[in-house]
Amino acid sequence: MARLADYFVLVGYDPGKRGSGDGQGQILQRFPEKDWEDNPFPQGIELFCQPSGWQLFTERNPPTFFVAVLTDINSERHYCACFTFWEAVESAQPQSHSRNGEEEEEEPSSPVQPAQLFAPKSLVLVSRLDHAEVFRNSLGLIYTIYVDGLSVSLENVIGNLLTCTIPITGGAQRTISLGAGDRQVIQTPINDSLPVSSCSVALLFRQLGITNVLYLFCAALTEHKILFLSSSYQRLTDACRALLALMFPLKYSFTYVPILPAQLLEVLSTPTPFIIGVHSIFQSETQELLDVVIADLDGGTVNVPECVHISLLPEPLLQQTREALSMVLDPELEVADLAFPPSTISASSLKMQDKEIRAVFLRLFAQLLQGYRWCLHIIRIHPEPVIRFHKAAFLGQRGLTEDDFLTKVLEGMAFAGFVTERGAPYRSIDLFDELVAYEVKRMHTEEGNKQKILRHIKELAEKLYKNENPYPAVTMHKVQKPTEGCHLRLHQKPFPRLDEGTVQWIIDQATAKLQTAPPAVKAEKKCMVPSGPPIAAIMERNGNALANSARRLEVVRNCISYVFENKMLEAKKLFPAVLRAMKGRAARHCLTQELNLHVQQNRAVLDHQQFDFIIRMMNCCLQDCTAMDEHGIAAALLPLVTAFCRKLSPGITQFAYSCVQEHVVWTNIQFWEAMFYCDVQNHIRALYLDNNEENHTDEESTEGPQEAKSALEIASEQLRLWPTMSREKQQELIQKEESTVFSQAIHYANRMSYLLLPLDTSKNRLLRSSGLGDVESVSNSFVTNSIAGSVAESYDTESGFEDAESSDVANYVVRFINRFVDKVCTESGVTNEHLKGLHVMIPDIVQMHIETLDAVHRESRRLPPIQKPKLLRPNLLVGEECVMEGLRVYLMPDGREEAAGGYIGGPPLLPAEGAIFLTTYRIIFKGTPTDPLVGEQVVIRSFPIASLTKEKKLTNVQGQVEHLIQECWQLRSCTFQLLRIAFDEEVASDSAEVFRKHLHKLRYPQHVRGTFAFTVGQSPKQAMQPKAKEKNPSLRTLSKNLVKNAKKTIGRQYVTRKKYTPPMWEQRSSQHFPEDNEDEISVSEEMDRSTLTPTTTIKPSDKMTINHLVERACCRDYQRMGLGTLSSSLTRSKNEPFRISTVNRMYAICRSYPGLLIVPQSIQDNTIQRISRCYRQNRFPVVCWRNSRTKAVLLRSGGLHGKGVVGLFKSQNAPTAGPSQTDSTSLEQEKYLQAVINSMPHYADASGRNTLSGFTSAHMSSSGKWGSIRASGRMSSYALNVEIGSRLAGKDLLGAQHNGTPSEASFLRPHRASLYIIGDKSQLKGVKPDPLQHWEVVPIEVFDVRQVKASFKKLMKACVPGCLSTGDTSVTYLRSLEESEWLSQIHKILQISVLVVELLDTGSSVLVSLEDGWDITTQVVSLVQLLSDPYYRTLEGFRLLVEKEWLSFGHRFSHRGAQTLAGQSSGFAPIFLQFLDCVHQIHLQFPMEFEFSQYYLKFLSYHYISNRFRTFLLDSDYERIELGLLYEEKGERKSQQVYKSIWDYIDRLNKKAPIFFNYMYAPEDGEVLRPYSNISNLKVWDYYTEETLSEGPSYDWELAQGQPEHVEEADRQDTSAPQTKRKIIWPCYDNRSRVEPDAISKLLEELHNLEMELGQVPERWKDTWDKVKASQRTEARPEGSRTPSSLLMSSSLSHHRRSLGVYLQESGVGSTLNLSLDSDTSSTSTPSSGKQGGRKSTSTLYSQFQMSESENRSYEGSLYKKGAFMKPWKPRWFVLDKTKHQLRYYDSRMDTECKGVIDLAEVESITPGAPTMGAPKTVDEKAFFDLKTTKRVYNFCAQDVQLAQQWIDRIQSCLSDA
């Protein structure tokens, strides 16, 4: 029971204290006069009676009533009900007492009697109960009695009022009467924990609207300042009460003043949060408040200042709350759009609406705080419960760690109060507890269903309404009211003074009565508070998120199981995916759960690699955590970091915690507290559970289900029993609990020292701001750092002693742990003695741990670094030797994107980890990608040493690789390859240096003899192992001694040998041939001519020399063209216009020309000798080709020397005095040219038709075609603009004039010259054309070798950029390609060539006389022949062309290729490559005109600089003879394998496989090609851009062959797995033409395989091909198509040049005919039907022959065979077949389908083997044997030793039979 009112006060105006217009109030009387003991009288009531100040009024106002709220020092609220009325002031008083000067001055001036003034007077009731209506009625009654003068004693009424007691709660209905014939019914609420709001909440929403109130609600919860403004005091009180009601179940604990008096306005600038109401007249005063949310109730606005940010409810709750509120407040909204709205909808009554709104907010809180009880930690139960809320866990599990609103609410005071009040496990419960416990599920299921939500709201509203109004039919109040307008009566007596005695007496009477009455004990209905469903169950609404991460969780699980099963490669592959998955919470939880499963008895010992993986996962897991959720994960990992460990050495174990210290969470004291409380709760729960079990051992059946009790349930059970326990029992429990807490504190002191002390305590590292270490810190090779390394850095400098330093670390950690222990122990009520004990122990714990760490640190530094992948050995060519063993390096990505996973996507193949090898021939990188997803692919990049053009050291290589790197190099090769290698830290820098030196030595040998083509097959003389590098003298030292003897030696050799045979290698190596110094060794001068020069009558012994000369390519070609013959007697047939001259047979005249030359018949040899002096390098004009139709000839020569030029053209016009030598030579020269002209059959025909202007018509008639489908279009364009003139004029060839006329009139002469001399413009300056001559000079501008070099460098950089460009790669590529000007050079060469072709085709001869006659001249001359003569477009012809024009005519391959030390300075000039590129361009435009494929051109491009063959070494025939290279090929070959000549090699390959053959070859007879040469028609050659990382360059055919076999076999064995037909082909990795060969190669290959299986001798592919071609021709004939090109296409396509053969053009390395190069046998017969068909037919064929075959099984039996790499041993049934000479194997004896074949031809040896992993256990070691084939080694195992021996013998006998 409680008093209805504590005090009754009468407050009046204080006339004595009138200030400036503002008076003051004074308490006139108060009852009772003594304070109640339990409730002192509140101060300052007089302020609150007139909140806007005490003032006098000139008229009477009607009485007012409002309730103000005062809060006392114990935060108890007192409700002051103020009833105010006005009384007249005696007029005399103010004048006599006035101290106000103003008033005194006023009054004399107004002679009129001043108006009556009225002062306010207030009746105030002070109560702790909030019954506003009762107060209003009671005070109204007192006023009525006073105003209407009722005959009732006021004292009695007041006495009764002050003694009236009513129950506080319980829903009692009480009728009270104050003794004036009145009656009031008071209903108390059923449950006082629920606020009472009557209609205030509904009113608040009416005044402000939904959004505004939600803003205020959130502001109040997140502790902002809120100020209400209104002109009604009652409204202010109601609004404040409403806001508080909405906040239920949280209680507002800050300043709460619903009505703030004017005098206290400065309270508004308080820094703490508040809810205050102020009258609107003070609105202006509130303007300058910057951080207050102001709600204007009258205007309906809420003003949030800019600097205040209110966190709103988390979505979707905000939206749902808004919708629910609008359903309650505005039910018509739903049906506003309906055509026939229901008539019945109307809002509930205001009181009901009020409860509905509160129901919405109650639901909101239930949803916000759902599951909160699962995050309460009960630390102590006795003597009274201590409860902590684990905020981080709550937010983490709810997935709201990021949510601003909830975080602030949980941190707020209101929530702290909520935990204290509602945390207790045993108490009475109310509506909210029920809602949170039982209705959460329902709220979830109803989400989104408006009707159901509304129904739930109405149910809750009913309950709330019932709570306030338990009795529906209330008996009406009966209270007298004053008569209307009574306050206006003029002569009203003032309120009488009351008799204190009477009132006091009544009060005393009542008090005495109360004391005698028995105390009313209210039985509190305490019970266990239900916890409701755990958060996990509630949070399933994120189902979709979980489902989406199911795959990720699977990845995490798999990875962990791989780690523990030691499948490291698999784990490594999944690892990046796991690290990515760790971004999701689910995956992190999954990780901790999975790791838990692998811990037995709190320990899990791992090996180093496992440890490494687990640590990295833990670190990643911790580092991606957010600050809040981190506690969830870190908490789960905390027990694990002390469980996982590895043995470093006997007795020293390293635990995981030493490697995961780099995270801020470990220094977060809140984290440790939460963890500590959580553990304490578990232990306390265990404590009581154990007790129960002891007590109820007999009742085990009932005990089972109880074990799952939560700690709170146990606590509430204990609290219920507490009062019934004995004192001793209580003490015992308190004791037990305290020791539990104490032991946990010790445990945590240990744990914290584990995670805070760094592994290396000597290092003084402290809390880093970042806190997150790099993942690196976990790899064994690094000492890990810790976050709490040590105290501030300042210590570093001060102390020089390790002890001192480590003690700094210790001090810091000790302080940290002490702080923690103090806090938790005081909170959980540990006694002081215990606490002191702890403080003593902590330093010892820390010191002990430091000591163990030192040992661990020492050992961990000794750990070997993490195992690196083992180095793979590259395959070498026969005769290729390793010069330097592999150095471990990383191959870094360069500017080519594909391999690094660029725009094509796919995992990056680079960077790759492996080794770099240096052999005598190549630099090879072989390794595996560091990206584990492609970890089992092998990456090979190599290039011939001879092609190295540049090496440079790189300084800043981005850290794409985990391990430390020493130095990085970039090696660039002119085979368009780039090696960016970074040496691993394990490679000593001097070995890298040794590597570089060797590389240099091999790249630039002293002499051509040092190149691989010569040294091949010899073991390298200078053993280049880095250790023994000083032992043998290198070539360089040898050379010094030998230079002196060189001349004599050479001389002697030639003298003594008539028939030249090469000296043996031994002699050779002892001589040194200087390369370029022609003066020193000039054969013609030093030797006796008679001994060497065959005279016209050759002695038989000498004939060989000439025969050799005759057999040279050029000679064969001359005979083919009928340019003269060389009969055995050398008698000339006089009628031939040309003859073969042997004038140069001793290379006396021109060193760089071949021995036999074609010259005009009429010119004598001695003339030639004279003429040659006019030309550079003595390269005088000789005929190299003749047009069979027009008989025009093509001549080549070097450019003219200056004097020669002038003489040639000026001698006729301006004869000089005297027959100078110049004259005679130029005359002879003239004669020479004239002789050439005379040789042409129709040189005299000077008809005008063929002038240059008529050139176009000449083309039109000439045979041949333009490289286009639209041939006619091309010709007409020629006709329109006569380009030729401008081309001849050497105008800039890129911008030929298109104005239709040649630019120089001189070309429009009336006759056509018979001979055009194409010369260099710069040489022919000032030359006047001479109308009388028959020749004409065409000056053109050409680029020199320097430009080619520069251009090539840029081209290489464009095609193989060194590093990634920043911008758009394709644009950069195109730009750099353009800048290189490579294509414009190609364009120029092609243009000149086409021009020459035109001239020759129209019957004029052409002499190409540019530069020295061996670079661009050669290019042009060769291209002209290729375009004009179809013979050169065959394989044989092209070889001839290259041998004749390039090799015999002395293109300086060694010099241009910088092949030796001498050429090092000049650098690499790719003249020949440029020529091949031109051929490639022509090939693209005329794919059907060439017998060879594009691959053939690439093959030549690669090998002409690779130095693998001798063909392209040296600068001329002369040098080759000198070295004895030219003719040795005819001699016996020493070894089969090593081909000295590229041509032999190509021939042999071509016999075996159609890689060099162009299937589209369908030539048209006598075809002259005229390719487009515009840059837009040129394509960048894919040779420059493509690469195959799977095998390195595919041009060393034997290397590329060895691989695919294993793959197939492995596939075949694994039949269990589903076979997929899909192939993934990587553009930069796979060799496309091999993985996906073109159709024809595939068919040829299948034919070959079929024939092999049938045991036939396979036919050569060429024969098969020719047959097919022939049969197709015959088929095609009847259809009337006569063209030969109908081979593969119908004839209508024959001109369809460009677009054909996407795959066919590059038959390249297509066929996988795995033939070793030796077997000359080859394949093919009828095509089988595609792949599957082919496969099937083999098995059916087999079954056909089954019977006859069986006798071929010469021996059979079961053997174990080890599968290919990483496959297990399996028993197979083997059959040895002598007839087919093969060993077949089957799955079982019964099996008819052969699983694989080992061809005995390929078997190299058979040796006893040794058991490897996974071999059958029971078998004797000696029963193992290995079969080595050229491709791989097969491991076998027989049942016992005898059987093994038998097998070995049988196979051996088979081999020897063969």
Could you write a compact summary of the structure shown?
The protein is an alpha+beta fold and 1858 residues long.
DSSP summary, beta strand count: 44
Shape: elongated
Structural class: alpha+beta
Extract low-pLDDT stretches: 92-113, 538-547, 696-707, 764-806, 1020-1104, 1127-1132, 1204-1222, 1244-1310, 1529-1537, 1603-1619, 1679-1751
Strand composition percent: 5-15%
End-to-end Cα distance: 121 Å
- Cα radius of gyration in angstroms: 54 Å
What profile does the largest beta sheet have? 7 strands, antiparallel
Number of helices: 63
Instruction: Give the spatial strand order of the biggest sheet.
Output: 25-24-23-22-28-27-26
Estimate percent helicity: 40-55%
Mean pLDDT: 74
